[in-house]
Structure formats: structure tokens, C-alpha cells
Amino acid sequence: MGLFDKLASAVKNFDYEGAADSLRNEYERKQSSIERSAHNKFRDKARNATDDELRHNLQNAIDNIHTVLHQVLQLAVEDNYIRQNISVFIHQKPLL
């Protein structure tokens, strides 16, 4: 049996499904490891955050919600679903 025959036999007998399963399992293992790492970093950062950082993050979240709400309500005004955008009258003031 020559080298070409051995190579042809190896290609013919190769377990493609097993290799695909192995690659898929390796990918899923790495993905879950990355997700765990990101979750742990977020948890540690939240646990060690100061009150000022938490207050700042809360204010940023509220500002982001207000921005999106303003845009949605403006579209509703333009489409004549409502007469005026009530988010215009909400003044920016710190909640905390």
C-alpha cells in the first residue's frame, strides 16, 4: 500500500461528524467560559462600586431611557398618534 493509498484511506475513513461535534463542543466551551468571565467581571465591578458610581450609573440609565422615550414620542407626534411630545416638558434634574 503506497502513500497515496494510505492518504486516500485516511480521508475515506475520517469521522467528519465526530470532528464537527468536537469543534462545536470546543466552541461552546470557550463561549461559556467567555460569558462566565464577563459575568464575573461585571459582578465584581458592581460589588465594589461606590455609592457615587452607582448614582452616576443610575443617572446615566435614566438619561438613556429619557432619550429613547423622547424619540419614540416624537415619532408618535409626527404620525399624529398624539398631539405633543410630553417628554419635552420633563426637566433634567437629579433624582438622587
UniProtKB/TrEMBL annotation:
Top-rank taxon: Bacteria
UniProt name for this protein: Uncharacterized protein
The species this protein was found in: [Ruminococcus] torques L2-14
